[in-house]
Each structure stands twice: as structure tokens, then as C-alpha cells.
Amino acid sequence: MITVQVEGLAKTFFDEARGAIHAVDGVSFECRAGTIFGLLGANGAGKTTTLRMLATILRPTAGRARVMGHDVVAEPEVVRRSLGFYSASTALYPRLTARETLEFFARVNRYPRERVGARVDELVERFGIDRFESVRVEKLSSGMKQKVSIARTVVHDPPVLVFDEPTVGLDVINALEMQDVIRALRAEGKTIIFSTHVMSEAEKLCDTIVIIHGGRLLASGSLEEHRRATGKHYLEDIFVQYVREGG
Amino acid sequence: MAESPVLILLGRELRSAVRERSIVVNSILIPVFLYPLLLWGLFTALTVVDGLAERARSRVAVHGVPEAHQELLDSLRALPAIELVESTTVEDAERQLRAGELDLVADLEAAGASSPGLAENFRVRLLYDRALERSRRARARAAGVIERYRERWLSRRVEELAIPRAEVVGFRIDPHSVSTGRQLGTLVLSEVLPLFIVVMVALGCFIPAIDTTAGERERSTWETTLILAASRRDVVVAKYLYVTALGFVAGALNVIAMFVTMAPVVAPIVAQTGEDFAFSLPVLAFPVMVLGTFVLALFFAAAMMILAAFARTFKEGQGMVTPVFWLALVPLLFGQGSESTLTPATAAIPVANVAMMLRDAVRGVYQWPLIAETLAVTLGIVVLCLLVARTMLRFEDFLIGAYDGSFWRFLRERTFGRGAASRRRVGRALT
Amino acid sequence: MVDGGGGVLGTLYRYELRMLLRDTRTIAIAVVAPLLLFPVLILLAREAERRREAVIERATYRYALTGTEEDFAYYRVQEALAIETFDPDTAARPPATFLHDRSPNPDSLVRAGAIQVVVEGLAADEYLRVRARELAERPGEDSAALAELAELPEVPVLRLHYRTDSDVSRAAFERLQERLEQVRRQQRDSVYRAYGLAIDLSELGGLEARNVATGERETGALLGVLLTPLLLFLMLSGGSIVAVDAISGEKERGTLETLLTTAARRSEIVAAKQLAVVTVGIVVTVVNLANLFVYIVLDLIELPQELAVSIGPLSLLVLLALYLPLTVLVSSGLLLISGWAKSYKEYQLYFLPLFAVVFLPSLAVLLPGMELGSAIALVPVAGVAVAVREVMLGELDWPFLALAALSTGGAAWGAARLTERALSTERLISGTELDQADLAGGPALFPRRVLRWFGLLWVVLLVSSAWAGESLGLVRQVLFNVVGLFFGGSLLMVRAYRLELRAAFALRPAPAAAWPAVLIGAPAALVIGVGLAEAFQRFVPVPEEVLRSFGQFLGAGELPLWQIVLILAVIPGVFEELAFRGVLMHGLAPRLRPVPLALAVGAIFGIFHVSLWRIVPTAYLGVVLAAVVLLTGSIYPAMLWHALNNLIAIVPVELGWVSEDYDLPMWSYPAASAGLALSFTLLWWTRRAAGKMQHVGTGPGGGRP
Is residue B420 situated within a structural domain? Predict the structure, then answer.
């Protein structure tokens, strides 16, 4: 089932000195339920901007995007209800406890009130937060914070999940844990859109890999399809090949 | 000989400061723009008020003017600011006054002819609403006219009775202030300048002190600084000099800006009171003022930095330093008035002593032994702060910022030696 | 799956408050500390004041006697000092002791402070001589003073010499003067009695004033004036406690983005935060007011006796209805700056201007002649302040009350909408990448710096006028201000930012049709300008003094005509245009669309004319001239227009063709409007004919379409 559709999405910023900056320049793709869709590209390629447009944080300058059939511009709140957004820069409220954080985000995302308590219990157990559920976030270590962050991303059970460079700054163990979580979520039938510039991660996780460079989509397909198209084996070389060809 | 590390560090601090908007605004932009703006605003407000006051005419109802005193009625009518209103009876007029339709009711009546030669004696009763400003103004205007008329009438009566005027007046009293313009100007300056310098230096030190300690922690450049090849001592000295420099510059700039902007304009305004003001300072006052400003900067920099150093974010730092700021200003309450001057007792109170020293200097009074005491007390406190700082830097947990900004907890644990608790805290802060 | 909207709003609000209550340090410092600090401060201040007074009052005052009538003075002073012991008034103050000091040179001793007051006895003619000499030494208008002197009765004079700048000397003088006045009055009374006037002097032409206002009414008036500023102050400082964290703090911590990705609407987020700000603001206000009440009860603050508060329930309701929009406005304003600021520190930078903008209008209630039934009801904050005073006086003018509430409420709503927009993270991202211009410097940087430069020019203008204004004379002042400051400053800017000369000064050839447009438009615009100035004066009247000083200054009667034309028409016409419609407009053009650009340039031009009553017509002229330059793309027509404008405004009056108070006939206004419309139609037509809008500023990357 197609859950996310992006057609000709573009975003232009105006800068006094440099004039128009085309951060995203006509990107189109589709995502299906139960798959991990990867956006691969260098820093400044336009991955984050694209994802932010999907999350309705930014308005597209052109093009359309639909999440679960709802247009991001026309029905932003409905879109946000169906979406869970995780980014390294989205922080937690320091003075709430872990449990309160989950309850807060469940409620604010309009999860049915009578089921909030049970849902939070479920997540607390699943992510091993029970050891510190009553401790304030400001006192948690970064590994614990990461767990709480993931939990709050999925607390309202959205069908689509967006992870923007989720393993940036994590140590090996935590990064691997993150990857396990993402795989588990895929097994539950979620649509996962995942951006990274770490090639090995993309190789391991993604069903579909999309290469973005200079705001444009250079190629799209599974890892095997990319290997056949470029004749290279490693994703790094594949990436470089596409960039050279200019798409 | 290698370049002094303190100077290199100081250079970096100053360069960062100039690019930090809040510091630039507070220390440079405000002195340059605020005073002219205030000045212009004040001027405009005053002229607008004048214009409005002139335009507001007072509605006055006058009753029962005896035949002999028609002149009074004419005088009232002649005043453009007064508008005479007709009304039937005094009760009616009073009702209108209470309802706000009238500003003043003047009820004249012939007084009893209980003495010969004064058959035309009269009495005036003014009814006004003290709650309303326009009624008060009406009263002042009318009372002025009535007073003058009364004087004229009285002197005519006196003439008629052939009482020599000289005997009536007896003698005259003429007040004469021998204060020169300079003395008056000095009075104003001595009240305003010391207070102003203290506040401006404290404000000038405020943000840099927090920024260079808690701010660095927040920006995560604290560690960067700690691993430099410079010694801890050099780092601290450089930061301290930086804060002192900014405090001093802020104080000086503000004083100069205020003087340059306000003095030429305030003098004429004040001169309208009839007195003749001249703002000037004795020559020896300048070095004393510079010295005082510098010493104040040293003091505030030390006190504020010590407290801010415990904070981890700018906001925490501000929370810690603000009470100190207010406390430091309290002693100033005791220094007001033209008679207060530096004494051995007051020279021992920090901040207040420097303020008094400055006030004396403005007045041209120099009590060198007491000035020495003032400097000794203030510098003594500064040295104490620096020693405390040096001690604090030896503690690891302080360096890593494990105290959440609590100076008291630090003190408590150091005094009661709860080493284990602090080690645990270090451990947690590092993960 | 659907949860009611109220649920989300309620959740956001509750959690906002919960997090605030856990920030114990902030609460301690912002709420508890002031409560403890104020009584201490008040007590200390009172103690300091008391001590100061004691020093002054307990002093032994030393006085001296001099003068040709020294004996006369001696006897009078003895009489005066004898009174002291009988006066019931001294029960309130410690009795004063006066010591006679017989040292020589008492004058110098007064200056040195050893003697507090010198009584100099002078005969009448002696006194006249002394005064005349003194008046001759002082500069200024003294014909009035001399005439007064001539009218004085021929009696001896006691001159009391004292020092204004010494508290003790002033106190000594005041007390001695009081007693001497009483001696004089007693003497006069005895004279009257000797001549048969048997009644008390105060009954001759007695003047009595009676206040009809009740204590409650007076209290109401006082409270009415103080209440709004006080509440505003408390709400601004209390609300800030939440507002600073609400958006800018969250931006800094990174939690704002998290919040924006949830299903909550922007409007809900803003509303929840606003409720939090309002809640805390109200709590802080109530706490502080209760505190104030406690201080009054504990006698820490002294109140005048007659105060009595009585507010009817209806008035109370009206007050609430008035303060509600005000509260929302304050919280909207606080949230707005929190939304604009990228960090805690930046918030504090914006707080001071916000405070000024919100607080100062509430002081309008102090202006004389302020009535609610006037245009003031349309001004947010000021309207409410004036309305509150009238309500406290028991006057309920319903239509205008509603107007005041609506205008403030409208402003609040506007601010709330702006805050919603400020939450778009577009600004959060693109805000930090602009420093490319910082690196390149030069013309790309100028638009960001231009206002600073002109601000500096304004400051220099103000300060130099204050110091040297009058002494320079008209010609030199114009040359210095217009050529030196304005034009010189512009040249400096051109050099510093390497601006292209032609573009910066708009030195392009003008289309032919522009010239007739100028000739028609200049007089027309002048007439309308005069009308505008008069209309403005109806709202904000000019005091006589200011009018006179304008007239005096421009009345350069001694100058020959060609100089007047040069100094007042040609030079400003050329150089002010180059500075304002040239460099300034060039700097602002990349960032503003044409209409706001013309308005901004006009406003800034107006501000440079400092005095309020010149700002309005000058700003209007500035807007017109800016429009001319924008439409024709050239500065030359504007120069001619400006010069013509000044010429027509000044020369006829100088030459005496027209008197200063000449009132324009009523038909001139419609005629002028027609003329101006015609002129601008012509100009618009030239623009069309040229094919495209002539932009004054074309920065790299092109101006905004």
C-alpha cells in the first residue's frame, strides 16, 4: 500500500546576499507500508529540507506531498497525526520525567485519552525505560534519552515514521540498537523514511535507496538495482558514480 | 620571548565580545543612542504637555459679584484660559461642578461692614473638585487673578485711609542665594554622577562576567579553553581582565555620553527655575573618577565572576548574579544629601565607599587617608575573591560543571567533606 | 482516533505550568526574592531619609549680621527668634538653635559653609543701587525686573543670603524667613489696628477654597492614574518569567521543533503558551498587590489620611472587561519577542523596547486634558489607561469604553497572529546563513548597515544642535547640518561600502514628462502639507513658545534674498535629496517593497527634523519625494520639487507678500489634491512609458519583484 507520495516537491529560500537558493528542486518518490525508504546524500543535499516538508514544518514552494492520502499543505494536522518525526536536533523537555514525556506527547498527538496509560506502559516496558521512568530527563544519560526519544516518536502509533539522521553522534552500541528498533518497526508494517549520509547504514537497512544531490533526486531503487545500473558494488562507489553523472 | 599567553587569551575574549550582540548593545550602542533618544523623547513630551495644557480652557461660573468689584469679573473674563459660564444659582453651579460640566465655581459676596472704611469688603469662596486635574488648574488660574485683584484693592483702601504704605509694609525680605552656578551644578552632579557610575559599571560587568564563565560552559567551549597550553592561572587572569575592561569601558562611555548629550540641554531647562547652573568638574576630580571607576570594575568583575562560575547556562548564571547586583546597590541609599561625605566608618563599606569618594571628588573635597582606606578595602575584597577562585579551580567537580550552579552546595560539601557524593556527581556528568 | 481540540490545548497548558513550577530557582529569584527585598529596601530608605533629616534639623544654625542697617536687622532677628518658642509648629520638629556669629567677612564664610545665613540690613535706596548693579551684570531681558524695582515701597530691606546647594543652609534660611515674615505680619496688623481697622486682616478680601470631591473620589482619581502603569509593570515582569522560556528558550534547547512536529496546531501551541503567560502574570500581579497591601497595613508605606476606596460592582466588572484585552496584549507582546528571539540573551535585548512600547502609552493618562471621549480611545493601552481613570471616577461612557477595549483587543489579536507566524521554522533555519554578506562586505552589506549609519547621523545632529545650535546662526547651521552631516555622511557611506555612485545617488536622466509634473505637483503638495500640519495641530496643539521659536529661527530678516533662496531652498533641495532619497533609499530598497520603502524613507526624513510639529509635514513631504524618485528613477526631479517646496513656503513670507498667519482659503485644498493627482498621473505615465519600474536600488541577486 502506498502511504507517502511526493510529486515535484521543491523548496526555494531567498537570501539577501546570494539570491534564490534551491534547497530542493523537484523531488518525486513513493513509499509503501512495511518498507524502509532511505534518502542518501551529502550534507546540504536537501534531505533534511525534504523531510521537514513532509513533516509540515516547512511549506513547499512547488509540488505536492501526500501522507496517508492527506495533502501536507491542505491538512497539516492530520498529516502530523499520522507521522512520527525523529531528528537528532529534536530535544526533550528537561524538567519532565520520562513517563510524563511519553504521556504528554501521546495526548498532544490526540491519541485516545482512555488508552494513553496502557500505551505508555507498553512502551516503557518495550524500550526498557522502567528503570528510570520517574527520573527527570535532565538527569538521564544520553543513551537513556535516546530511548525516551524513540518512544515518544512512536507513542501515538503513527503509520509513517521519519528518521532524520538518527544515528548521528551515537556510539556503536546505541547506533546498532537504533537500527534494531527501526527494523522492528518495519516488521510491524510501518512506513519508515530514513535519511543518512552513512553508507553502511543505508546498505544494511533500506529497501529502497534514493540518492539526493544538490536538491535533486539522482536515482531511486533497491540496492541491487543500483548495483546493476552503475556496475559498482559498494554504495559509496555507486553514490559517487551518480553524482559524477549528474543524474 | 614568546607572546604572553594572557594577552593572547585576552585578545580572543575581547574579539568574541565585540561580535556578541548583547554585549555590544549594552556597552556601546545604548550609551550612544539611548541618551539622545531619551532626551528627544523628554523634550517632545514636555512640549506636547505644554501645548495641551495651554489649550485646555477652564470653565468657571462666577456668582454674586458685588457692584463695587466688577473689575474682578472683567479680569477673569480677560484671561484667555478662562471661559466664564452662566449659571442660575450657586447650588445649580455646584451640581454642575460635581457632574463634571464645570471646572470651578467662584462665589463672591459682600462681607459684613463690621468696620468703618471697609464697606466694600468682600469674600470669595472657590468650589473645586480636587480629584480632577482640570479643576485644580482652574483653581490655580482663578486664584492668581483674584489674589492680584485683592492686592490692588487692598492697597487702594490703604491709601484712602491715608495709612502710609511704608508703615504697612514695614520692611521687606529679599532672599538671595549666593550659590554660584558652579556650586549648583556641582550639587546636581555630586548626587547623580556617583550613583550613575556605580550602576553603569555594574551593568557593564554583568553580561560579560556571566558570558565568560557560564556562557562558555553552555557553548561547550569551556573544555576547549581548559585544554589549552596556557596555565589555569593565565586563563583566569585573562578572563578577569576582560570583564574588568568591559565594565570600565561601559561606565566611562555612559558617563561621557550622558554628559555630552544631556548637559547642554538640561542646563537651560534647569535655568528656567531662576537659578543659574553651570556643569563643570574640578581638574583633580578626573583622575579620581577614573580611579574610582576602575576600582569598581575590579570589584564587580570579581564578585560576579565567582558566582557565575558555578552556573552551567547563561540563564542560571544570570539568576545567581542578579541578587548580588541588587545587594551591591543597597549601600548607595545611605549616601544621599549634600552633607554626606566620606568618613572612616563609611570608607569600610564596599561600593558605598567608592561612591562617596566620587561624590567628594566632584565637590572638590579630597580626604587622602580615607581615599586610601577606600581603595584598600575594595582591593582587599578583590584579592580575596581571586584567592577563592584559585582554590575553586583546583576542584575537578567544579571544573566539569557538576554543581548545577549551586554555590552553596559546593561550600557545604567542601566544608563537610562529602567527597564521595561529589565523585558520584562527576561520574554522572561525564556519561 | 479523534480527540477534542480542548484536550490538546489543555494538555499543552497544564504541562507548560508543570514545567515552570519545577524550575525552583527561577521562581525563587523572580517571585520570592522581590517580596523579601522590597520591605528591606523600603525600611533602609526610610532610615536613610530619617537620618538625613535629623542631621539637618538638629543642627545649630549660625548666622551673621551686616549691612548699613545692621541694627535694624539685629532687632528684627531677635523678634523673629523669640517667636520660635511660641510656635506650635515646632512641636513637629526639634527646636532650632540660632547662634550669632560675629566674625568679619561673613560673605566668604557663607560660601565656605561655616555660617548658614547672613542677614543684611539695607536702606531702601541702598537696596535699589545694589539690585540695579546686579541686574546690569546679568544678561537677558531685565526691563521687566527694573520696572518692578521702581514700584517698590521705600522701606528697609532685609536680604537673607544663603546657599541653595547646602541642605543645612537652606533649612536655616527657610526657618528664619518664616519667622521674619511673621514679625512683618504682626507689625502690619498692629498698624492697621492703630488706624482703626478692627478686623482680622485675613478677612479683607478673604479667599477660601473648598473641595467638593469626597475622599473616595480623590482616591479613585489617584488610583485611576496609578493603576494601569502599575499593573502593566507587574504583568510585564511577571509574564516574562514564562515568556522567556516559552519560545526562545525552547528554541535554544531544541524542544520547539519536537513540539512543532506533533499534531497540535500552531494556534493551539500559541494559545496554550499565552494562557501560561497570562496565568503567571496574573499570579505575580496579585501577589505583589497583596504584598503592597501588607506593607500599607504594616505602615511601611505611608498614605495620606483621606484615602478611602470604594468601587461599585459594576465598575469592577467594567475594569475587568478593560484589563482583559490589555492582559492579552501584554502576553502576546511577550510571546512575540520570544518568538523572534533565537535565544535567551536575544530575548532580553528585545525586552526593553517592548517594555517601552507597551508601558509608555499608559502614561498618557497623566497628560492634561485627556478625556476618553476623543481619539485617545483608539490608541491601544493609552485608551484603556484613560478609560480606567474615568471608570474610577464613576463616569461610564459606554461607547468609548467599548472602543478602548476593542482597540486594545485588536492590537492583542494582531500580536497573537504575528506570533503564530513567527513559529514557522523557516526563520529558525535561514536566519543563520546570512553571513555570506558579512564576508563579502561592500555593497551587499550596506542594506543591513544603513539604518545604523543614519541613526548615528541623527545622534550627531541632535548633540551638535544642542551644543552649538544657537551660536552658529542660520547659515552656518544649515551648511553644517545639510552639507556637512547629511551629504558628508552619505559620501562616507559610499566610500566605506564601495557603492556605485550613480546607483547610490540615483543620478540618472529624468524622463521629459517628469518636469511639468514637478512644476504642478510641488505647490499642490505644499498646500496639502500645510493642511496636514494644521490637522495635526488640532490633535496635538503647539505651545506658543515653540511656535515663536520656529518663527524667530527662520526669520532670517537680515539676509539678502539670494542668500535666503540659496540657504533655505537650493542647498537643502540638493543635498537632502542626495542623502535621503539617494543613499538612504538605495540602502533600504533591497529589503522593502515600493510602498513601505517610500513610507520608511519619509518617516526617517521626518525624524531628522527633530521637533514633533515639523516631523509630520516633513515626513509627508519625504514620502512624496520618495515616490517621485521611485517613479522617475532619477533624483533630479525630486531635487527641483524639494527646492520649489521650500521656496514657496518661505520666500513669500520673507518678502512680506503674505503674512505669517495667512490662512489658506478652503478651495485651495481640493484644488491642491487635484493638482497632486494630476502630477502623479503624469509621473506614473512616464514610468509606464519607460517600460519597467525604475528601481533605485539593485543589489546583487536582484531586488524583490
Answer: no
Task: Give the pLDDT confidence of B287-327 residue by residue, as tens digits.
Answer: 999 999 999 999 999 999 888 888 878 888 888 888 778 77
Q: What is d(CA A40, CA C690) in angstroms, rounded to the nearest whole number?
A: 50
Domain housing A236: 2-82+158-245
Same domain, B225 and B370: yes
A144 & A28 share domain:
no
Q: What is the interface pTM, i.e. ipTM, of the complex?
A: 0.78
Scanning C582-611, the segments in alpha helix (DSSP H) are 585-588, 594-607
Among A15, A100, A110, beta carbon nearest to C433: A15
Residue where the block lists cell 521537514: A52
Q: Are residues A241 and A171 in the same domain?
A: yes
Residues A192, A236, single domain; the answer is yes
Query: How far, in Å, CA of C693 to CA of A187, rounded?
Result: 61
CB B123 within 8 A of CB B72: no
Confirm if C645 and C480 have CB atoms less than 8 A apart. no
pTM of the model: 0.78
Return all residues near C389 (Cβ < 8 A) that are at least 6 apart.
C221, C224, C225, C365
B245 shares a domain with B203: yes
Provide the strand spans (E) within C167-296.
206-211
What are φ and ψ of residue C165, in 5° steps?
A: -85, 10
Alpha-carbon span B243 to C59, nearest angstrom: 45
List the one residue out of C388, C371, C217, C379 whose CA is nearest residue C318.
C388
> For chain C, give me the number of helices (H) and strands (E)?
30, 5
For chain C, which chains pass the contact test of at least 3 CB pairs under 8 Å? A, B
**Nearest residue on chain B to A141, alpha-carbon basis:** B431
Q: Which H or E run includes C274?
A: helix C266-297
Residue A224 to chain B, least CA–CA distance (Å): 41
B46 in a structural domain: no
Please give the helix or strand (H or E) that residue A28 lies within, else none. Answer: strand A19-32
Give how far Cα C158 sits from Cα of A90, C102, C126, Å: 84, 18, 12
d(CA C469, CA B265): 11
Residue that is last in its domain, among B108, B142, B168:
B168
DSSP state string for B251-287 = HHHHHHHHHHHHHHHHHHHHHTTS--------TTHHH
What nine digits make up the cell of C444?
551587499
User: What range does the domain containing B146 cover?
Assistant: 57-168
C41 in B contact zone (CB under 8 Å): yes
- Determine the Cα–Cα distance for residues A197 and C584; give it in Å rounded to an integer: 46
pLDDT in tens, B346-366: 888 888 889 889 888 888 888
Residue to mutate among C25, C251, C261, with most A CBs inside 10 A, is C261
Look at chain B and report how many structural domains it folds into: 2
Query: Of B350, B368, B428, B426, which is closest to residue B395 (Cα–Cα)?
Result: B426
Per-residue pLDDT tens for C582-595? 999 988 988 888 89
Select the residue of B150, B183, B338 nearest C207 (Cβ to Cβ): B150
Residue B131 near residue C213, CB atoms below 8 Å: yes
Q: What is the C-alpha to C-alpha distance for residues C577 and C644, in angstroms, rounded to an integer?
A: 13
Residue type, position B152, single letter: R
CA distance linking residue C668 with residue C484, whole number of Å? 37
Contacts of B173 in chain C (CB under 8 A): 157-158, 160, 177, 180-181, 184
Tell me the β-bridge partners of A2: A32
Is the pLDDT at B106 greater than 70, yes or no?
Answer: yes
| Same-domain status, A74 and A171 | yes
Last residue in a domain, options B168, B203, B229: B168
Judge if A114 and A12 occupy the same domain.
no
Indicate yes or no: CB of B173 within 8 angstroms of CB of C456: no
Distance of CA C612 to the CA centre of its chain: 11
Minimal CA separation from B428 to chain A, in Å: 8
